[in-house]
Amino acid sequence: LFNKKNISYELDQDNIPGHIAFIMDGNGRWAKKRKMPRTYGHHEGTKTIRKIALEANRLGVKAMTVYAFSTENFKRDINEVNYIFKLPKEFFDLYLKELIENNVQLRYIGHLEMAPKETRDIIEKAISQTSQNTGLILTFAFIYGGRDEIVETTKELCQQCLDGKISVDNINEDYFEKHLMTTDLPPVDLMIRTSGEYRLSNFMLWQLAYAEFVFTDIHWPAFDETELHRCIAIYQGRERRFGGVLK
Ligand code: FPP
Q: Which of 14, 148, 193, 237 shows the smallest number of beta carbons within 10 Å?
């Protein structure tokens, strides 16, 4: 068995992904392996968010988006859903100060209005307290679905047309993209899904059109700096053509 701690990856500082999106999978399985309740996996998973955000920030990544709760996650047991809704408070109580010290800006995408008021308040407070920060933009996809986001944007642009603010011909990819929940975030360069599942699960469908995908078997609570470096090294080994041909 190799000792992961002894392995380091040589990263090209000029080719750090600008925006990394994470599907944080495997919290439940990680906990089960330890004979602990699924919620313990989510609890430990929040520590990984902090660890990886600080490291991404240190590496010069501009944006990091994490899939914290999907529109489909409401199908889960009510106790688990309620527990996840309590995590933002736990997360910000523990780490907001440190994130501010590290110049991290917080945002969310999704239907925060569907969350309990305490959860909403705590997230909105963190967002307003960090809005002037210029380091990593850490976005929580919370009550988020990729198809839903596209439908919401479509509705907004239809309304703009009906109100006479724009005409149908004003709608193009750039205009549409600016009206997605991610608005001005840089394009996603790298999508990492943990825990050995090879699906998008309705995450950032528009934004991932040209992202590189890296899948790892590691469960989210066990994902660490070394594993992040390994994923970035894989990304750096890929040849990106964006539909063109290699020059
Ligand atoms: C998937 O694991 C993970 C989630 C559903 C997200 C849980 C949320 C967090 C880690 C953090 C939220 C934090 C904040 C601050 C909003 P899973 O339960 O699907 O694992 P499994 O596939 O092993 O069952």
A: 14
